[in-house]
Amino acid sequence: MTADARDGQRKILVIEDEPDLVRGLTDALTFEGFEVQSRGTGAEGLEAAMEWDPDLVLLDLMLPDDNGYRVCETMRSRNPVVPIIILTAKAQEADKVRGLEAGADDYVTKPFSIAELIARINAIFRRQARLHASDESFPIGQWTINARKHVMTKGRASKRLTFYELEVLKLLREHADEAVARDELLEKVWGVQASATNRTVDNFIVKLRRKLEEDQKNPRHILTVYGFGYKLVL
Fold first, then answer.
1. With 60 as the cut, is the pLDDT of residue 180 above it?
2. What is the side-by-side strand order in the sheet with 179-181?
3. CA-only gyration radius of the chain, Å
4. What's the pLDDT score for residue 6?
5. Which class is 3-130 in CATH?
6. Structure pTM?
């Protein structure tokens, strides 16, 4: 059993219509100590997400009754915090970006390594455990970031932060006024090695700027260090 499972059995919802893949995922995740339920359609998955309250969702993009983007958007509107990992056979970057824009936290392209998927899941749960042990809040400009509640506030205005959005902000804040490399962000936040085509970090920076900056084209807080990475100015 994994170290994560010892802290209490985590629940993972698999929304996927390929029976062989569902069986493989269920067997592998159960072996790792997770409690698993699966659903084959978007409607069933949304219902299970509301009733079962999973700790993490694995969501296929190609479902028989709906596309995964709309399912992701609906799920995210109902639960801004639960991590969602998209499983997709679409390898084009535009499709991955669209998934992130719909509210997903990460994506894995089919065919994928079960070992890598489990490593990503465990990394999410380890970071959540550290997050829940802290009531940390910190300012960025006129916004106050509440790490425990996954929310940013300014006066009466309030915006939700997804799991990875918050993790990116926290790492940048640890190195405020210093440049942080994309490779370091990928490794420390997502637990994966960088690749020449991996634009995950850039996509999340775009999402954060939309929430944080008054002028996204001329950001004041999340600055690009060209050819290297990003810098946070508080």
1. yes
2. 179-181, 229-232, 222-225
3. 18
4. 42
5. alpha beta
6. 0.69
Helix runs in the chain, H state only: 3-6, 19-31, 42-52, 68-78, 93-101, 114-132, 163-174, 182-185, 200-212
Q: Phi first, then psi: what are they for 66, rounded to 5°?
A: -165, 165
Distance in Å from the first CA to the final CA of the chain? 41
Phi first, then psi: what are they for 5, rounded to 5°?
A: -70, -25
Helix (H) or strand (E) run with residue 152 in it: strand 151-154
For strands 151-154 and 157-160, give the pairing. Answer: antiparallel
Say whether pLDDT at 88 is over 60: yes
Extract the tokens encoding 80. Answer: 């801004």
Distance CA 71, CA 84 (A): 11
Q: 80 preceded by cis ω (within 30°)?
A: no
Tokens, residue 198: 């991996």
| Distance, CA of 62 to CA of 82 (rounded, Å) | 21
From-to residues of CATH 1.10.10.10 in the chain: 135-232
The domain defined by 135-232 folds into Arc Repressor Mutant, subunit A (1.10.10)
User: Which letter does DSSP use for residue 42 in this model?
Assistant: H
Q: Which H helix or E strand runs over 17?
A: none
Tell me if 163 sits within 8 A of 190, measured CB to CB.
no
Q: How many CB atoms lie within 10 A of CB 134?
A: 10
**Burial bucket for residue 151 (CB in 10 Å: 0-12, 13-18, 19+):** middle
CATH 3.40.50.2300 intervals, the chain: 3-130
Token pair 């969702």 in the structure block, residue:
57
pLDDT at res. 196: 46
Q: Which DSSP state fits 221? A: S
